[in-house]
């Protein structure tokens, strides 16, 4: 009997490890955000896509809850995402674009073809702002509250379901 | 292109493969339990069919890549029309969905091979083995179909072009590294299936180990080559000349390797001496479990790593459940069915049995060390004790001394006899080797560099201690009346395999020690005409320019390298590439490989005044690292070719009378 109990040890060890792995799993998706969550939007000073003469900085984000969407003409998923962003803009959400690692010409073509839900687009050809944001690829979306603090981070494509299920509730949550 | 139905055919083939795997997982096991030969007979045809349909599915995905069908999401995200065809074909496994499909295909391939080459197995044993492998396959195919379908379409908005393959992965090393690694991971499913079948059948004798040994060796050899390739790829592709980072993904491949190494040795003891029976079963389960856990760690993104694959918690959960079911049930079965009474097979504390036991204990300690270091940050985080990262210092501080101790016993192992060895005899046969190792080890750093170095001395000492007693043993064993060659031919291939494998370990240790202690690394600013000296070589920049590749633009530098005052010189051409589709810069290193040293030149940043920051490195003996890996793998394969495994088997099925007529098995 004693030996039988001994033979159960590997199973017990595995169950403990499995428990930790499960917990690790539930923490995981926000791991990347922990560095940015509840922090100020990183400082930047970049020209806009629309007007090379006009430079903007992080003060652009103050005063109203804003969605910052990182996109690029080279990114096929961003094209898939545009209808959802236009939908959000129609529902009165303020959107700012970051045209990431792109050329001016291509960026403008993209907006002309797929529509422009953005109040203004920050032009980030070198990817410096994207780097500070810790962007892995496009599209990624950040929700910034009226004080310029990052409150929510969406990695990848915003699906049609996400608009109602996550993005709009998050926007409402931080509006007050 | 988009109207082609290839992806749908692939998807459909995958579903059929899943159904066949289900039949293969259920019928033979049920048949073996109820002793119905007809049910058991389902295993072989289903294994064949499953493999066939998986191959069709895989071929369809490859075709979508080669035909630039960007309506398939997987292709659009990971390929590009400008990509050369061979990278299009290898891009199939350069992403999550495709690599899991490859995993499943390889599992199907191993199952098919087992069903072909195990005709001498008793019918119920084969049925159970194929059944267990079928069930594993069901899990993975369900995973592919439910969470990671590679055939998903982007309709109706089909992208014009793809996002391109990550430039880091556009490389020969990546073409071959993952398939080798998966061959190893998945190959351990065979010995796992044998162990489970033995537990289910209640026949935990030495027979199952003899059948499982060749399969285990082959899987282990593939894994060894896979790990060596991964290290080689990191060395020249990541651009900073390191060859092992103790990165979670690397550890994930090292864990099953360490456990597998222990398993190979423990299988030998069980087969030859009938000892360690439960232990061998437990190791077989653990090795495959660690392979699965490696997959989980890499795929779920639980641990942050340089090998970032798409992280998706739902996928992670699916694999964790899969892992829980497979490992949990196996260990439960182990607890219930492992032999109740330990059959004491006596051996003295000075014997090959005992040395192999120590080898196993040390390897298991090493496995646990690496496992803890890998998941420790996760454990702390889970208990809210803060985020930390366990770095190379932890691993080196524990792993290096353990390796040294392991090698001390490794030197004696091949000399010792089974059951009991006379201590005086062992001493007689090893003292000279020990003395030589000590002297050469102490002198080696002085002769090589003119300065004493403890680590190098120790490294050389233990490598020689592994090799020299073995060489002496070989010398004694090849003594033959008609000459040495005839004597060498008389030795079994398994013995030669052991020699090669152990030699590989020694070669790798020399490589690790020398390159860790004597590598030279300099960051310099260089313009055209500038010269820099490093380790007796003069590097002169002769040209700076730019060129256009198929899918990238590159700045390159031409460096003329001359050794000392030698008249002969050679050119090295490092590049800094910008991959167009992703706008991603990449360093393409220039390497001058050699058996005793590598020269390594990488371009850093453009310093705008016409000069560049350059990184020059001198890497002595770095090739030995991978050479050792290849030797180990060759040893593993050579041992499989041993006549013992090709002998006509006369195994009989105790319940069914004579099994299939005896015939030559090819495994």
Topology:
The complex is a heterodimer of chains A (176) and B (667).
Chain A: H1 2-27, E1 45-47, E2 55-57, E3 66-71, H2 76-90, E4 94-100, H3 104-114, E5 120-124, H4 128-133, E6 140-144, E7 150-155, H5 160-175
Parallel strand pairs in A: 3-4, 4-5
Antiparallel strand pairs in A: 1-2, 3-6, 6-7
Chain B: H1 6-34, H2 37-40, H3 43-66, H4 73-78, H5 85-91, H6 96-117, H7 123-147, H8 172-201, H9 207-237, H10 248-273, H11 277-300, H12 313-337, H13 352-382, H14 392-412, H15 423-449, H16 454-477, H17 484-490, H18 493-518, E1 520-526, E2 531-534, E3 537-548, E4 552-563, E5 569-572, E6 575-579, E7 584-588, E8 590-592, E9 597-606, E10 612-620, H19 622-640, E11 652-653, E12 657-658
Antiparallel strand pairs in B: 1-10, 2-3, 3-4, 4-5, 4-6, 6-7, 8-9, 9-10, 11-12
Helix pairs in contact in B: 1-3, 1-7, 3-5, 3-6, 6-7, 6-8, 7-8, 7-12, 8-9, 8-11, 9-10, 9-19, 10-11, 10-13, 11-12, 13-14, 14-16, 15-16, 16-18, 18-19
Number of helices of chain A: 5
Percent in strands of chain A: 15-25%
Q: Quote the average pLDDT of chain A.
A: 83
Number of strands of chain B: 12
Helix content of chain B: 55-70%
**How confident overall, as mean pLDDT of chain B?**
85
Overall morphology of chain A: elongated
Pick out the low-confidence regions of chain B.
304-310, 648-667
Rounded radius of gyration of chain B (Å):
27 Å
Report the major sheet of chain A: 5 strands, mixed
Widest sheet of chain A: strand order?
Answer: 5-4-3-6-7
Oligomer: heterodimer
Strand percentage of chain B: 5-15%
Q: What is the end-to-end distance of chain B?
A: 44 Å
Q: What would you report as the Rg of chain A, rounded to the nearest angstrom?
A: 21 Å
Bin the helical content of chain A: 40-55%
Structural class of chain B: alpha+beta
Main sheet of chain B, how many strands, which sense, barrel?
6 strands, antiparallel
